[in-house]
Design a protein that fits this description.
It is a single chain. This protein is α/β, with parallel strands linked by helices. Helices cover 32% and strands 18% of the residues. The chain contains 7 helices and 11 strands. The strands form 2 sheets. Strands 1-2-3-4-5-6 form a 6-stranded mixed beta sheet. Strands 7-8-9-10-11 form a 5-stranded mixed beta sheet, with no helix packed on it. The longest helix is centred in the C-terminal third of the chain and has 24 residues. It starts with 17 loop residues before the first strand and ends in a 9-residue tail after the last helix.
């Protein structure tokens, strides 16, 4: 679940399957929607010439999509050795178990309910496939189980739904928490600067360059939206729905349910800070 409910941040590029970096190929899942943009980006990670590959976010339980992923890896005379989930939302995870059955690879995730034949994922873990190393970075906020994956050799960062290729993501309250999300964005921005990250490979939408600029824009936007919510409450809004109607008045109504999740997360953040009363919920 993404929900591109906020003003534009990111790329205007058209997006399709294909080789995107030295080690990363995208197989775009056939689940495009206002919530998922062009569809879920299933990432095939493989060092040049290697015989092992990692799949990140198999996407929906679409047999044709999963078989295409398997075929792409087999065409390179390689095999899938690990399946990783950036988080458990069904547009990223529903096909994971089936892909594991097709390939014999384990599914690794933060949330035990999404694992299959393997262990979990935690900050500091490094998943190896040949000469490729994917470093796990805990980034809760969009969901409590969200992680990003750093490929330091090529300066790429896979962000799942923490950062999107277009727009900005939902803080999926009550599991997602704005306070955690702000910390995660700041951590990623610091990492982008210190590690020389060149590309963001999101869970939906095109690759982004200038990661530090993008992450700064994400942080600035979240602070601005929080101020909008404060203003809506001060103007008399007494429910999340009323806040949505004020703050997201220019957003298509089909995305208001997604907007309300973020608003609930923002209101919780303000309640925790003692800025608003508990009655607004």
């Amino acid at each position: 679940m993404t929900g591109r409910i906020l003003p534009f941040i990111g790329s205007t590029d058209e997006w399709a399957s294909g080789v995107k970096t030295i080690s990363a190929t995208c197989e775009l899942a056939p689940n495009a929607s206002p919530w998922t943009l062009d569809g879920t980006n299933t990432w095939l990670l493989q060092a040049p010439g290697a015989t092992e590959a990692i799949i990140v976010d198999p996407g929906p339980a679409d047999e044709d999509h999963l078989l295409e992923v398997v075929a792409k890896v087999a065409a390179r005379d390689a095999r899938i050795t690990s399946i990783l989930l950036t988080h458990g939302h069904i547009d990223h995870s529903a096909g994971a178990r089936r892909l594991g059955e097709l390939t014999g690879a384990s599914v690794r995730a933060v949330d035990p309910m999404h694992r299959y034949g393997g262990e979990g994922l935690a900050a500091g873990d490094v998943v190896i496939a040949g000469d490729l190393a994917a470093h796990v970075i805990a980034t809760p906020g969009h969901t409590s189980d969200s992680v990003c994956l750093l490929l330091p050799e090529e300066g790429s960062l896979l962000t799942g739904d923490t950062v999107l290729g277009r727009g900005t993501t939902v803080v999926a309250w009550p599991d997602g928490r704005l306070s955690e999300y702000l910390v995660s964005l700041a951590h990623l921005r610091d990492l982008a600067e210190s590690q020389g990250i060149e590309n963001i490979l999101p869970g939906h939408g095109p690759i982004l360059d200038a990661p530090t600029k993008i992450l700064t824009a994400y942080l600035d936007h979240r602070i601005a939206r929080l101020n909008d919510v404060r203003a809506a409450v001060a103007a008399g809004a007494i429910s999340p729905a009323e806040v949505v109607a004020i703050v997201y008045v220019n957003t298509p109504r089909e995305l208001w349910p997604a907007a309300e999740l973020s608003v609930r997360a923002q209101l919780q953040h303000l309640r925790d800070a003692g800025e608003i009363s508990a009655e607004i919920n």
